[in-house]
Records
---
Amino acid sequence: MSEEWRPRHWPPHWPDVTDPAVLAAIAAVPRHLFVPPQYRDQAYEDIPLPIGHGQTISQPYIVALMTQALCLRPDSRVLEIGTGSGYQAAVLAEITPHVWSVETIPELAEAARQRLHGLGYQVAVHVGDGRLGLPEHAPYDAIIVTAAAPDVPPALVAQLGPRGRLVIPVGEGIWDQVLWLIERHGDRLSKQHLADVRFVPLVATDSRPQAEDEATAQIRMQLERLFAHH
Ligand code: SAH
């Protein structure tokens, strides 16, 4: 691929993003091909941009911070919720070939699928309600949610492997969202505050009643305890 698009200063210096694999992934993905043509000249500014359907491509710094928190290895299995433009999925796919992504807006999913495959990224894009995860390919070593949920969906934690990591923005409003890292240590869960953030909402698109299995019900209770004082 032509290197002409890559600005000299890209990625910029982020004091808290130090993982060489993450920085190399950000350097490798041509972000200008993930934004609408009228925003192309701003693609290498460290800002979110509109992608249509009321959605946005995330700020590169937040993409880098979230990716770093997943601690990916070249063989990690990763699930993304909220494909959007496909940019975050491409960054993940620079690190591991095992990436699944769920998007609820069919037009965005189709555009992202074509864009990703056109660039050679083998990301499996599914249309659905990401609050339910993607059970058919679980367990995942890492799950990344790129829309803000009012609560952590227990189904996502249930689909993590025994040492899995979930990175998710939680909060109802635009102004009080917190980016959390939830780690699974066998049967135990822990949470760690990563940053204060602003994401578009994770919307409930599948209103069918979901039967909850025993393991997921256990995780729902654990999550309630984990966030009780927050
Ligand atoms: N990761 C994207 C940014 C996504 S913006 C990128 O790199 O461009 C958040 C996305 O989440 C939007 O595309 C929105 O349609 C999607 N979304 C919102 N609720 C969802 C849900 N319940 N399931 C799956 N995707 C959802």
---
Amino acid sequence: KAERQALVDEILEWKKKRNALILAHNYELPEIQDIADVLGDSLALARAAMRADADVIVLCGVHFMAETAAILNPDKTVLLPDPNAGCSLADSITADALRAWKAEHPGAVVVSYVNTSAEVKAESDYCCTSSNAVQVVRSIPEDREILFLPDMFLGSYVKRVTGRENLHIWMGECHVHAGIRPHDIEETLSAHPDAELLIHPECGCSTSNMYLLAEGQLPADRTHVLSTSGMLQRARESDKRAFIVATEVGILYQMERQNPDKTFIPANRAAVCPFMKMITLEKVRDALARLETVISVPADVAARARVAIERMVAIG
Ligand code: 13P
Ligand code: SF4
């Protein structure tokens, strides 16, 4: 414990010296969440990065989040404490593959989830996150074809909610969320029949749950499909005492902290993102001390990607 405090003190000193701001995603390790100036979902972190007036932004999250910060605030030094913190979902589509897909659908509007590389964003018309995907799709005229990528579960969810038949979905997935299956929900719900259901739309269970919901097989008044920050807000505001949480388990730390009198049950305890857990206190200290690893995006790619990202930040 004393060792951990000494590390935290070092980080705070370096933070002052570097005039740095620490942004952390809701899936980060508890000790990283504790030192964050801003803790949030992808949209909140993008907005915080855009507004930041510190000289250095330490992004405790994954590579695409640091790229997004660098694109939105190009004058700042954006540091990712472990450059290997990637994302299986972002890796499921390349810019070349997207160009080929676009060639098959000339004139289609490209909506990319924020979990994509800067190069893929540069080929996109809009970016979206789990908290505004539905609103972004609704903002596009009905008669335009849409290419939605890369997450097939989020895509199916958005298609179902908006009823857009001309929305084509890329078959990518996040291996962590895809591992949360419908039977995980069935089992936890039968063990906790009064619990409220909080589901991330990237989950393998979310699409089938939308069908079950529509068929009246899930409690509609207690099932919520939300981004990670949306889940935290719902947990605070709901008068229910127990919640089944279908997303990466790192979020439970904050839920329990904010609601000590409520119970949170992970739908699948094995839903752990190895990339998010790569960021440790030691690596944050070293990142600030050595000013490493700087994440930057070539100016031409950044300029094209920025248009799509700014549309995302503006909607929802
Ligand atoms: P949100 O925090 O935006 O809901 O995204 C979840 C996620 O998997 C980020 O990588
Ligand atoms: Fe990527 Fe999934 Fe990890 Fe989020 S949880 S960073 S989508 S691999």
